[in-house]
Amino acid sequence: MSQENRINRIIDVYNSPKRVVEFPKKNGTPLYTSEFFGENVFSTTVIAKCLPKPIYQQFIKQVRGGQMMDKNTTDSVAHAARIWAMDRGATHFTHWFQPQTGSTAEKHDSFLSLNSNFSQNGEEIFAIDTLSGSQLLQSEPDASSFPSGGMRSTFEARGYTVWDTTSPMFIQPGPHGTSILYIPSIFISYNGEALDEKTVLLRSSESLSKASVDLLKLINPNPTDELPRVTYVYTTLGTEQEFFLIDRGLYSLRPDLKITGRTLVGRLPPKHQQMEDHYFGRMPSRVLSTISETELELIKLGVPIKTRHNEVAPSQFEMAPIFEEATIATDHNLLTMDVLHRVAHNHKLKVLFHEKPFKGINGSGKHCNWSLSTNYGENLLDPTSTPETNYRFLLFLVAILDAVHTHGSLLRAGISSASNDHRLGANEAPPGIISIFLGEQLTKVLDAIEENRSIKSLEPHIESIKVGGTVLDMKISTLPEISRDLTDRNRTSPFAFTGNKFEFRAVGSKQSPSFPVTLLNSAVASSIQQVSEALLKQKGDKPTLTDDDKLFVIRQFIKKTKNIRFEGDNYSEAWAKEAETRGLPNIKTSPEAYAKLLEPINSDMLTKDGIFSKSELHSRYYILLEKYTKDILVEARTLESIIKTQILPIAYEFRKLLAEGIKAIENVCGEQHSTPEKKLLKITTPLVIDLQNLIDSMTTTIKEISTIDDPYNQAEYVEKNLLPLMEDSRLKVDGLEEFISDKLWPLPKYNELLFYT
C-alpha cells in the first residue's frame, strides 16, 4: 500500500495539467517588466499623485524623521490608500509585522463599517467603506500569544502594531479575486517594548546612520559642492535566498517534512550532488514555471528580483534581488518567501526553507550582501582604484574589522538556530568561527599601512595597487579581453569582502535577516564611534585632521583587528586550530551562542545606544533558548511517532515474512537453501532491537526535560542528550531502509523527493 501511494503520486505528477499564467500584455504585446514594476505598491510616487502637494510634503517630512505626522496628514494618507487599494479589489487591510516567531503575522480587518442617521422615521443604518488615520497608524493584536521572553504574561494581552512609514504599503491577492492592503508595521507591547524583529532593526539603522554621519563630518568638516555634507547613511542589503522545491504530494506523505521542515530519516540515493551537474543546470519545467510566476508577482510588489538558478543539491534553487535599503530589503525578502510558498502550492510543489532538509547533501543559506551608502548614493565601501589613499574607505573598513573582531560572538548568536546548526561547519557553510576575508590586494594595502611601508614597494613593477581589475587573454581571436577582478572570492568565509560590500554568508535560509543585520549594524555603529573617538584624540587642538592623523588611527585599528582576517580555507581543521591560537571563539552550538548575547562586551554595546533595553535583550535570549528547545523536542516527538507507528511495524512485518519464507523453503528444499533469507534476518534483527532500545531511551529523555527549570540548562540538555539519540535512531532506520522491501517501505525516499519535480 505504501509503495502504491508513492507510485500513484508520481503518476499524478506527470498526468496533471500544467498551470498557465498569462504574462502582462498591452494590445497583445508583452510589457517590459519595468512597465509594471511596483504596480501593486502604494509608493511615494503614487502618494504624490493622490494627495494635495502641501499634505504630501508634510508626509515626506515625517517619513524622513523631520516631524511627527499630524492627524490631517494621517487621515489624508489613509483615505488615499483605501481608495487606491479598493480600486484594485481590496476588501480588507492588515498590519503586517515580524514577531519573534521567524515569520510574519497579519490580522485582516474589513474596510466595511456601519453608520447611522437619525430622522423622524427613526435610526437608519447604512454601510460605508472607511480607513481612518488612527486605523492606519496602529492596531491591537493579542500580544500575550506571541513570544515575549517573560516581558508579557498571559493576562497582559494588549500590544500594538504601528505603521512603519519608511516601508511602502502594498496589496496582495485575497480569495475570490479580491485583494488585501498590507501595512508594514512594528510590533510593541503596551509599555512600548519591542516584541518584534523590525523595531530593533530600525533602531540599529538610525544608530549606524548617526555614527557614520559624525565620522564623515569629522573627516570632511568643510563641505563643498564636490564633497557635500552627508546627512544620512543607510545600510544596503541584498539577500540571496536558497531553497528546495519538491513535489507536494510526496511531501504530504512525509510527516517529518510536514511538521519539522526536514527529513528525520532517509538514505541518500546512489546519485545526488556528487556529479556536480545540478549547479546552474537547466531548471525542471515545473520549477521554472513556479519561479517565473513568483518573479511576476514580486515585480508587481516592487521587489527587484534579479537572479534565479539551480543550486548545488538536486531540487535546490536560488533567487536573489538587486540591493536595496536594508529595512526595505528585509521586508522584500520575507515577501519573497511568502510569495514563493503560495505560488509553489499552486504548481503542486512545496518550498522548503529549512537550512538542512536532507541529510548528506548541501543545505540552504541566505547570503546577506551588506554595505553602507550615503544619502547621495555613494557606496562608502567602494575602495576606488586607489584604496591606499582613500582614507574615508579605509576608516570605515577598519571600523567594520573592529566590529567583527570585538563582537564576532554576537554575530554568531544572530545566525544560530536548531536548524542552522545542522548546516554551519559542514563543507557547505562557514564554521562557527567568525572571520573576515578581504582578498589579496586589500590585505597587501593594510599590511603596508601597518608596517609603515610604501605601497609602491609591494609591487615594484607597478606604481600602486589598483583595485580595478586586470584582463585575461584567452588566446582566442574571436573573444575580447576578459576583465578580471584583482581578488578571487572565498566561498568558505562567513564574512567576505566582495569588491564593494561584505557578504554575510552564515545566515540561515529560514530565518528573517532582521536580527542578524540588527546585530551587525549595532556592532559597526559602536566601532565607528570608537574610530571617531580615536580621530578626535589624534586631532587634539588642530583645526582639522591631517592625512597623517587618519593614517595613524587606521594603523592602530589594523593592528588591533589583524587576528580576525583570514584568507584561507575556513573549512579546514588547520584553520580551527589556528583560530584557537588567535583567540577567536569556535562556537559550535546555539545555546553556547545565545549566551554571548548577555556577555557584558555585547550587552553593554547593545543597550548603550538603545538598540535593546535590558529587558528586551534578556527576553530575546529566553525566546531564542525556548525556541531552540521546542524545535528539537518537536523533532524528537515526530521521530518517535514515525518509528513507533510506521518503521517498527513494517520492520516486524518484514521479519515475519522472512521467517515464514525461511520455514517454507526449509520444508520443501532443506535447511541449506534458506541461507540468503537467514543472512538478511541476521542483519535486520539487531537493527530492530537497537532501534527499539533507542526509542525507549528517547521517550525517557523527553520526559526528563520537563523536570529542568532553567531555559539554558534545558537547551543544553536537549543538545547533549536528545540530539545524539535522534541521530543514532536515524542511522538504524536508514540501515533498515537499505534492506526492507521497497513495496513495504512507508515513506517516500530521497530519490523520489529529490528527482520528481
From TrEMBL:
Residues 197-647 form the GS catalytic domain. Gene3D superfamilies: 1.20.120.1560, Glutamine synthetase/guanido kinase, catalytic domain (3.30.590.10). GO terms for biological process: glutamine biosynthetic process. Residues 91-192 form the GS beta-grasp domain. This is Glutamine synthetase type III N terminal-domain-containing protein. Belongs to the glutamine synthetase family. It holds the Pfam family Gln-synt_C. It comes from Glomus cerebriforme.
